[in-house]
Design brief:
three-stranded antiparallel beta sheet, Rossmann fold, 2 domains, binds adenosine-5'-diphosphate, single chain, Molybdenum Cofactor Biosythetic Enzyme, Chain A, alpha/beta, 15-stranded mixed beta sheet
């Protein structure tokens, strides 16, 4: 058993694969667990990531689950911890980013942590505490229309303060640009002032390298996945990670494929349109028809498909159609209905021989992995920044699974994913 040095807790499944993929760029073995493992501590990796489905859960449930994950990671030997949430800070005034961070801080006995959802490679940057998606402030980006966590403010301090009990501060870009010592001095200054929650500006990878170097000995860091990316090299240099640490494995997987999309993000809409334009067989789920007639029609369609064509089943729709369905059926009800249907499609496709499963949507991925009975994923090659292929066991068979967060990847993601697995 390899000692774990770093434990990460992610608030959704695609967020977990995202950070696991970036940590795996180091070549070191990374394991991703779906939910808090109830199995004994076997086959642990130097980097362990636990995927929760807590982003939109009631606050108390999110806190309880995260604390259980922390206890498991501590049991595996981890001494550094990371609370990973979305690079668009997906949350509501109640949480769950702030309340969970405060619970972790209490358990770890630390009085300060940092918040940095920046992911420059994917166009997420923070300046003067304001989060940008590409060139747009968060609140003007398509995230303002997200089905579950619409983001209507771009200022991270204003978003975070109602979620926490202790003061929030900022270490701005001008300080980060002055280097590691300046960041550490800023954190000390904030600590003396009683500031427990420090938002960190970052507009480029070099800023994240500075912040990671300055914060690498903090018991708890919080942010998007990109902030964790420099950590393996830092831990190697510090001697915390051994040079002989185990490396990633690769496996041959049959080309039978299913693509399942339950994300309504702008990028997923473009990806679905581009994939359909290639002439791939596709089936669109309609929420209203589903409530009336159930999933049999899509399951019948799936049963007639040649899985080497990599067919697509999608509920992906534009914001107006999503709003209309939510108004008719209720936000939670329509979300759950579609997640349940896509999960049933994943199981049916696997039983029909699909060995490569491509899923778009964070919540959707949670439902699909649960239905497939997947509990541990080994991270493999990266398809797009923050989206790796993974290998896992489902009903005793090894499959390749990729879980894509809504706005990740370029328009050709679904075909990029298939091509990536065929590369030597
Ligand atoms: P993302 O990663 O883009 O946030 P998620 O899967 O996390 O995607 O969230 C999308 C939510 O929207 C899911 O709960 C999904 O079931 C729901 N959804 C998908 N299609 C529709 C639709 N046509 N109408 C309403 N809700 C939908």
């Amino acid at each position: 058993m390899t000692g774990t040095i770093f434990g990460c807790i992610a608030d959704d499944f695609t967020g977990a694969t995202d950070i696991a993929g970036l940590l795996a760029r180091s070549g070191v073995q990374v394991s991703l667990r779906i939910g808090v493992p109830d199995s004994p501590l076997t086959r642990t990796s130097p980097f362990e990531v636990i995927a929760l489905k807590s982003r939109t859960a009631p606050v108390a449930d999110a806190i309880a689950e995260t604390r259980a994950a922390l206890a498991w990671l501590q049991g595996a030997g981890a001494t550094r911890f990371f609370w990973k949430y979305c690079s668009t800070f997906d949350s509501t005034a109640e949480g769950n980013i702030g309340p969970v961070a405060e619970a972790l801080m209490r358990d770890l006995g630390t009085d300060q942590t940092v918040y940095c959802p920046a992911f420059p490679e994917n166009g997420r940057s923070i300046f003067m505490g304001n989060l940008f998606v590409g060139r747009q402030p968060l609140a003007e980006s398509p995230m303002k229309d997200h089905p579950l966590t619409p983001m209507r403010d771009s200022n991270l301090m204003r978003l975070l303060q109602p979620q926490v009990t202790r003061p929030v501060g900022l270490t701005d870009r001008l300080t980060v640009a002055r280097g590691v010592d300046a960041v550490q001095a800023s954190l000390a200054y904030h600590r003396a002032d009683g500031v427990a929650h420090v938002v960190m500006d970052a507009v480029a990878d070099s800023d994240l390298e500075t912040i990671a170097a300055a914060c690498r000995d903090m018991p708890l860091m919080t942010g998007g996945s990109a902030l964790a990316m420099p950590l393996p090299a830092l831990y190697l240099a510090d001697g915390l990670l051994s040079k002989d640490a185990p490396r990633q494995a690769t496996h041959e997987i049959d080309r039978t494929t299913i693509v399942l999309s339950g994300s309504c993000s702008a990028m997923t809409n473009a990806q679905v349109a581009a994939y359909i334009a290639q002439g791939v067989p596709s089936y669109q789920l309609d929420p209203l028809t589903l409530t009336q007639s159930g999933p049999q029609a899509v399951l019948d369609w799936l049963a007639t498909q040649d899985l080497t064509d990599a067919p697509l089943i999608y509920a992906t729709a534009d914001p107006a159609s999503v709003k209309a369905a939510q108004a008719k059926l209720g936000v939670a009800q329509v979300g759950a209905l579609i997640e349940r249907t896509l999960a049933a499609c994943a199981v049916a496709a696997r039983d029909a021989g699909a060995r490569r499963i491509i899923v778009a949507g964070g919540e959707t991925s949670g439902a699909v992995t649960k239905a497939l009975g997947v509990s541990q994923l080994d991270i493999a090659s990266e398809i797009a920044p923050g989206v790796p292929w993974t290998y896992c066991l489902s009903a005793g068979t090894r499959i390749a699974l990729t879980l894509k967060s809504g706005n990740f990847g370029t328009e050709t993601f679904f075909s990029d994913a298939q091509a990536k697995l065929d590369q030597p």
